[in-house]
Design a protein that fits this description.
With 312 residues, the chain is mostly beta strands. 6% of the residues lie in helices and 41% in strands.
């Protein structure tokens, strides 16, 4: 019988892309793709095609945040990184027992290609592996893929191809956690004058005025916006730029202390004041009224690019 290690071996790239098991389970842990090239390092768990880590060599601190208490276990979501929320974002519209944010982030994905590009970046592609369990929740014929490129920037492209005979409707997100100096010190720009739905305030609608700052739990879905956003972090002397294509919603989230304490996997953070202080989620999404209809035989791609600007 061919082992998963044997199946992954052809996709390894000398000194740049390797595979190893991490975490603890009966079968030895979850498989992770580890990338290390001239530009930086990254790791992607094959469960969920979940990017867990990205640390450019130009930065003293990682750009993608992963909780110190993150658990790598079969069928469980990982706290931090960039979970893939698909084929629905939030709770299921009619079946509350189905997993929040869909099943894509907790099921196996398959590596289908890898290569070095001429610019020195490393590219790896995954496809979601459907099963009887996923078909019971999503009885539509789809091909779902994620393409990741680690180079001077980090690029991710989530593609849904409708392989059936009728139209389908999805909501989705790349639920990315960014590493920051402190949640009380940052500003998020790019969403001024954008309408939002505020979950933390009980589902009220509002309009953003000026930059986003944080003084309490924050959980908003900004709609009808394809705008780029920037996380301005003076303490780390950098701006993180988030550019997106095929996304009309942006989700901004930080749980704050009370909710984080109840989660159990946010970790203590580098100062011991709580991991929630060192992260903010800025998610490229299609949610609420920005759901996506995909015609039979056609596909939809939501793509993001993350880059870092160092401040003098």
């Amino acid at each position: 019988m061919t082992s998963l290690y044997d199946e992954l071996a052809p996709f390894a790239i000398n000194n740049q892309l390797s595979f190893a098991q991490q975490g603890y389970s009966e079968d030895g842990g979850l498989w992770v793709a580890n990338i290390n090239n001239a530009y930086g390092s990254a790791s992607i768990c094959l469960q969920g095609a979940h990017l867990m880590h990205w640390h450019p060599k130009s930065q003293t601190a990682p750009v993608i945040w992963l909780s110190q208490a993150a658990k790598l276990a079969q069928g469980k979501s990982i706290r931090g990184g960039a979970p893939v929320c698909w084929p629905w974002f939030g709770t299921h519209a009619s079946e509350p027992s189905f997993p929040v944010h869909g099943f894509a982030r907790t099921v196996p994905w398959q590596v289908v290609s890898s290569r070095n590009l001429d610019d020195g970046s490393t590219e790896i592609a995954f496809t979601l592996q459907a099963s009887d369990a996923t078909r019971a929740q999503w009885p539509h014929e789809c091909q779902v893929s994620l393409l990741v490129n680690v180079g001077q920037t980090l690029k991710m492209a989530l593609t849904t191809r409708n392989m059936g005979n009728s139209d389908i409707n999805i909501t989705e997100a790349l639920h990315t956690y960014f590493h920051i100096s402190d949640i009380g010190n940052i500003h998020v720009t790019g969403l001024d004058n954008t309408a939002y739905w505020d979950k933390a305030a009980g589902g009220v609608r509002g309009l953003q005025t000026g930059d986003i700052t944080f003084k309490q739990e924050f959980d908003r879905v900004y709609v009808n916006s394809s705008s780029a956003c920037v996380i301005e972090d003076a303490a780390l002397k950098r701006h993180i730029h988030i550019n997106k294509i095929g996304s009309q919603s942006t989700v901004v989230w930080n749980p704050w202390q009370d909710k984080a304490d109840k989660m159990g996997d946010m970790g203590a953070g580098s100062t011991g004041q709580g991991g929630w202080r060192e992260m903010v989620c800025l998610e490229s999404a299609n949610a609420l009224e920005n759901s996506v209809s995909i015609v039979a035989g056609k596909s939809h791609t939501m793509a993001v690019e993350y880059s870092v600007q160092n401040l003098v």
